[in-house]
Amino acid sequence: MLNRTAILATLSLAGLFVAAPAASAALVTHCVGTGGAVTVPNDLYVPAGESCELTGTIVTGNVSVAAGGNLVVTGGTFSGDVRIAGNGYFDASNTDITGPVVLAAGGYGVFLSDATSGALTVRPKGTTTIDSFLYTEDSTITGTVNVQAGEVQVDRTSIEGNLSSTGTYYTDVHDSFVDGTLSVLNSATGSVVCGSSVHGKATFAGNVGGIQLGPNGALDSCASGGFWGRDLSVTSTTGAVTIDDNIVDGVLTATGNSPAAQIAPNNRVRRGIVTDPAPANARAATAARAAAPASREENTAKAGARRTEAVQEARVAGPADL
Predict the structure, then answer these.
(1) Which string of DSSP letters, residue by residue, matches 198-222?
(2) 107, 57, 163: which is closest to 302 by C-alpha?
(3) What is the pLDDT of residues 150-209, one digit of tens each?
């Protein structure tokens, strides 16, 4: 799970918050350093390579983080969109974001904790060299989540739309709720879903490294299975597939996986199971599970590293003049 010690360190900062004159609503407020409980009556902009840390700040316009910039906000209210450019980082705790959050190709990452946001989008990596990430915990997403790069970790989060993952490094969902469909396609190291509820159709296809739905799998620790409100399909997976302690209110399809999926007898499937013939050599399946990727528990450390970098840069900026 998320490394709270690393990424929720106490901030004690000084900085510079530079506001554009209030003569025109079209002007943009630039933020370098720290800002407090004030209202920004227009758009907010974090310049390229700079860091901004906000506490209790209200932004009535849109928010932009330029290339290489960092924005860390606690207890804020953003009425518009949040857009993060390449190598940019956005970190929001106890914050309400009305509009969508979009991480551009090659963006460093987005971390939400106890936050509410509109739709979340992570663009494909493309030709960039940076592997993005999206981490959420104890949050609510009022739109869809569409991720096409990097690491995806969704913990104790409610998603009111669909969750779509294509070409990520991994996509893991723990103790969360998805009101729409769930799709995980072509993940490089697979996917884990534990203790979660998905009301729409769920599709896992073309993934490498295995799929773990419920406990007793090789990818991650997990206390319980989940509820699947429609059909559940796990196909064309390279690596162990384990399906344990789940309720499927539809058809469970597990075909074309290598090795064949391991479906525990404690699953409750309402409308039947479609599988390949059982593997001839049980030892081969066991060996494949042992070779699967290790736990994801330490993978969120890079969020903490970027937060620390942003804090240090904000301190160098000097005292705020609000």
Answers:
(1) E-S-EEEES-BS-EEESSS-SSS--
(2) 107
(3) 999 999 999 999 999 999 999 999 999 999 999 999 999 999 999 999 999 999 999 999
Rounded Cα distance between 304 and 15, Å, is: 20
Tokens of 129: 């060299």
Q: Would the pLDDT of 310 be above 90?
A: no
Residues 6+ apart with CB under 8 A from 282: none
Task: Give the C-alpha distances (Å, rounded to integers) separating 16 from 27, 34, 36, 53, 60.
Answer: 18, 6, 11, 10, 20
Contacts of 245 (CB under 8 A, 6+ apart): 214, 215, 216, 224, 225, 264, 266, 267
Q: What is the CA radius of gyration of the chain?
A: 21
Buried-state track 138-154, b at ≥16 Cβ within 10 A, e below 16: bbbbbbbbbbbbbbbbb
Tens of pLDDT, residues 235-258: 999 999 999 999 999 999 999 999
The amino acid that residue 4 corresponds to is: R
pTM of the predicted protein model? 0.85
Q: How far apart are CA 106 and CA 87, in angstroms?
A: 6
Instruction: Give the pair of three-digit tokens for residue 242.
Output: 């384990």
Closest C-alpha among 197, 192, 266 to residue 226: 197
pLDDT at 215 over 50: yes
Taking all residues of the chain, what is their mean pLDDT, rounded to a whole number? 85
pLDDT at 293 over 50: no
Is the pLDDT reported for residue 36 higher than 80? yes
According to DSSP, residue 262 is labeled E
**DSSP code for 312:** H
Q: What are phi and psi of 6, to 5 degrees?
A: -75, -40
- Please report which residue ranges of the chain form alpha helices under DSSP H: 4-7, 282-290, 301-316
